[in-house]
Please model this.
Amino acid sequence: MSEQVLYRKYRPRDFTQVVGQDQVTAAIRNAFKTGRVAHAYLFSGPRGVGKTTMARLIAKSLNCVKHTSGGGDGDVPCNDCAFCRDFNDGRDMDVVEIDAASNRGINDIRALRDSVRFVPVRGRYKTYIIDETHQLTKEAFNALLKTLEEPPAHAVFILATTDPEKVPATIVSRTQHYHFRRPRPDEIAGRLMEIARREGVVLEQDAARIMALAAEGSLRDAESILGQVMAVQDKKITRAETEDILGLPRREAAKQLFALIAEKKTPEALALIQELAEGGYDMVYFAKLIMQYFRAALFVKTDPSLEQYAAADLLADEYESIRRHLPAYTAQELAVAVNAIFDHLPRFRRAIVPQLPLELMVIALIDGTDAPSAGPAEMAAVSGGRD
Model:
């Protein structure tokens, strides 16, 4: 039997284990404490940040013996009662999870509406979790609306979506809407360090942070990345090993290239790019790393009080490199540099020589010239391109 994936194995078992959503967990826990749990919730936010996890915790807490017995202290679920144990083992029958991406029609919602009439099998509440709610059809939303207006006392609905703008206002108005944010890289890295410790793996702090940055705010993706790296190296995971296993350009090379640009050493910079290209590294990813450097430098050059935001997406030694080379630029020059990088990104998609856009970008940065503005088609390619 295959090993259970980390994001499922270490899915939070109570509200205190949810990462990066303090504003939501505080509100939900207070609702249980005061006995004011709503009949319908709408959770919106990027993928992999904990929307479905929070929904499942609410479902478990609703039938937790500690809650149904009137404990009212907000510390649910208990994870000790029979219902919590069955829920954790996947044996609960009072939670219905629906994927709206594949069950989006009116007939699917009519079937849901018919099943709502039946009382729960064991507990006091039956919870319906509808994921990717925004993909429901207009007719399906209309059918769901009537149920949300007059729900049975035993039914609770939790809608989750990555695109709340596509959810009709009539649906939103009948729910309590909570927006989930992307966890900070340090929050994600801390969670990865804890998982690695529980798995008996030594995970270097820089390696954990690189995984967090690669996940781009998705905790689920970060846990999947950790599992991928652990499949190759399961004793001690270093920064260099993480980059090698994920096929990422060495961040040390990005730091070196930033220094060469600041020192206006064009031949050395082009030679470094050639080495990266021969190593088969993704030039787009590398260009984005350079943009993070110049963006961070622009922040600090504009106002030193912005340092906390500048350092958020960088490792400690990388940020020190930026500070060291900051005198080489004015704020205006840094703004021009960021714009030049951004304008070059669409060109990676149609480059015959993969490293050519990066070479042209570096020359523009060293010369202090801006690139021609990208047209609408190129800008669309950037917004819908690879990450």
